[in-house]
Specification:
Distance between the termini: 44 Å
Helix content: 10-25%
Strand content: over 45%
Shape: globular
Number of helices: 2
Largest sheet: 8 strands, antiparallel, barrel
Structural class: mainly beta
Number of strands: 10
Length: 147
């Protein structure tokens, strides 16, 4: 019984130590990509079944219940400039929930999500309130709704 209690205490401490609190709870979470506008042309692209799952460590972009075959990709997540910019970098092909296959994400597939770089995209967090968020990069302005 004593060993069981010690094991429970150690496991609880380890699990508590592994959790990471959100840096920007208003930004982090599960978002549906509604549309994006290309900076270079002003063209607006309506989106269907495309999602962003943003945490303070990784971000996943994915097509769910869609038939376009856009794929699932994961990137490292960081914030810059006093947490006013969201940076997604080193996109890889997703191999599971937050794992990757090690294969670089094809840029032509990332463009369906309003992203134009496998290496790094810096989004200005233009607006984030009321379950809606607008992010701006040098490639696109994307509009998301909390899911």
């Amino acid at each position: 019984m004593k060993h069981f209690l010690i094991t429970i205490i150690i496991m609880s401490a380890l699990l508590a130590g592994c959790s990471r609190a959100p840096i920007r709870p208003d930004v982090e979470g599960f978002w549906k990509l509604k549309q994006f506008t290309l900076v270079s042309t002003g063209e607006t692209v309506e989106c269907s079944n495309l999602y962003y799952s943003i945490t303070n460590v990784v971000t996943q972009v994915s097509e769910r219940e869609g038939s376009n075959g856009y794929g699932w990709y994961v990137s490292r997540t960081e914030y810059r400039d006093n947490e006013t910019k969201l940076v997604l970098k080193d996109f890889k092909v997703s191999g599971g929930l937050t794992a990757d296959t090690g294969e670089d994400a094809p840029v032509e597939d990332l463009r369906h999500y309003g992203i134009n770089s496998q290496e790094e995209t810096v989004f200005e967090i233009a607006e984030c309130k009321g379950g809606k968020m607008t992010l701006r990069s040098d490639y696109a302005e994307i509009r998301l709704e909390k899911f």
